[in-house]
TrEMBL record:
It is found in: Mitochondrion. One of its GO terms (biological process) is tRNA threonylcarbamoyladenosine modification. Binds 1 divalent metal cation per subunit. Belongs to the KAE1 / TsaD family. The keyword Oxidoreductase does not apply. GO terms for molecular function: metal ion binding; tRNA N(6)-L-threonylcarbamoyladenine synthase activity. The gene is osgepl1. This is N(6)-L-threonylcarbamoyladenine synthase. It catalyses: L-threonylcarbamoyladenylate + adenosine(37) in tRNA = N(6)-L-threonylcarbamoyladenosine(37) in tRNA + AMP + H(+). It comes from the Eukaryota.
Length: 433
């Protein structure tokens, strides 16, 4: 009797699974499907998504280990690795999704901004793909995709304030629509990820469309601290190493001057901070009688002080952006939102600092999970879904498209923000772990 009952229950569960599988298959067949492809820097990503935001299949190849060995991102190396892996990555995403190329409604690909040689690989592959299968093509702005990722996870309505911080970018913008942004502030030199990370690759185009590059690699804080020699940091990026070591450091042991304190705008600058940290490292090396390349005894304290200064700078610029938007009536009175995305947004110390700002100003802070903050094909596919829904930026497979290594986001109103000259009220950026 008992055995029969158990068997019946098992059969019912199997029957339900079959029904759900058939329903899911019918939804795949009826829902519009987008293939997203990302190759803007050092990640080769692809994902297939339906218009509800369901990820049907994805694949990602990271170049991090290779670039750690070479001391930084070298464009020609990144290009070669993208070329070697893009076919496999796209094939894996398609196979995992369980659909065929004929079922796709469109292909969305990052075309700006980013490393020219990396963008070129993704664009060439995508254009060949859409021509072969006669599919619509959707060019994607990388920063727009970062800004909209949160809408894949929860219903965030426009307008909302967005802070994008990564290894190559830092900006503040008001998102008024899927392709409607007001740029409030941007980095004037280095991005925070560049400053905290191991090295920074600076490239200048010397040929048509930047197809040839002269690459200059300059040392950054993590490399200057020789963190790759630290037993806890040998297999992680410079930014991750700074965050890890800062947990056991005393930020008050080193007092770094926050950047741009006398500039009442929302722009960012990190080069001056890097110089301050470098000078402190040189001073400590002399005091401890060690040569460059030796791990300092105070490395945790330097990491903590630097991380706090970066977080403070980001928080203050964000605070001013919030006050500016409120003064101009740019944010809704009901449930105004700050969205934070990009690789550096994974830093928990920076998130906690921003939480103090949003709690003080009455904003709701939203941060996508870390896996969606870094570059990936999912965010590109979702941006394609958003554009497909509204019928914006959809091209025929026969149209020509160029990549753009440098591309602003939205309408630049940074001068208007500067003219407003908003002074910040005192705010204690302190919290307990």
């Amino acid at each position: 009797m008992f055995a029969f009952k158990a068997s019946a229950q098992q059969g019912t569960r199997m029957f339900r699974v079959k029904i759900l599988s058939k329903c899911a298959f019918r939804r795949k067949m009826s829902s519009r499907l987008v293939l997203g492809i990302e190759t803007s820097c050092d990640e080769t990503g692809a994902a297939v998504m339906d218009e509800t935001g369901l990820i049907l299949g994805e694949s990602l190849h990271s170049q991090k280990e290779v670039h750690m060995k070479t001391g930084g991102i070298i464009p020609t190396v990144a290009q070669r690795l993208h070329r070697e892996n893009i076919g496999r990555v796209v094939q894996e995403a398609m196979e995992r999704s369980g659909i065929t190329q004929s079922q796709l409604s469109a292909v969305a690909t990052t075309v700006k901004p980013g490393l020219a040689l990396s963008l070129g690989i993704g664009l060439d592959f995508s254009l060949n793909f859409v021509k072969l299968h006669q599919k619509p093509f959707i060019p994607i702005h990388h920063m727009e995709a970062h800004a909209l990722t949160v809408r894949m996870l929860q219903p965030v309505v426009f307008p909302f304030l967005v802070l994008l911080v990564s290894g190559g970018h830092s900006l503040l913008a008001l998102a008024r629509g899927i392709d409607d942004f007001l740029l409030l502030g941007q980095t004037l030199d280095e991005a925070p990820g560049d400053t905290m990370d191991k090295v920074k690759s600076i490239t200048w185009p010397v040929g048509f469309l930047g197809l040839e590059f002269v690459t200059f690699v300059c040392s950054q804080v993590a490399r200057r601290l020789s963190l790759i020699k630290h037993p806890k940091c040998s297999m992680i990026s410079g930014g991750q190493a700074i965050e890890l070591l800062a947990r056991d450091g005393d930020r008050l042991k080193f007092l770094f001057k926050p950047p741009m304190g006398a500039h009442y705008d929302c722009n960012f600058s990190f080069a001056g901070l890097r110089n301050q940290v470098t000078m402190s490292i040189q001073k400590k090396e002399k005091e401890e009688g060690v040569e460059q390349g030796t791990l300092l005894s105070c490395v945790n304290d330097i990491a903590a002080a630097m991380q706090h200064t970066v977080a403070s700078h980001i928080a203050k610029r964000t605070h001013r952006a919030i006050l500016f938007c409120k003064a101009k009536g740019l944010l809704p009175s009901c449930n105004p939102t700050l969205v934070v995305s990009g690789g550096v947004a994974s830093n928990q110390y920076i998130r906690k600092t921003l939480k103090i700002v949003t709690d003080t100003t009455g904003l709701h802070l939203l941060c996508p999970p870390s896996k969606f903050c870094t570059d990936n094909g999912v965010m590109i596919a979702w941006n394609g879904v958003e554009r497909l829904r509204e019928g914006k930026g959809i091209l025929s497979h026969t149209e020509e498209v160029n990549y753009e290594p440098k591309a602003p986001l939205g309408v630049n109103i940074t001068a208007e923000v500067k003219e407003a000259a908003i002074k910040l009220p005192p705010l204690k950026l302190r919290f307990t772990d």
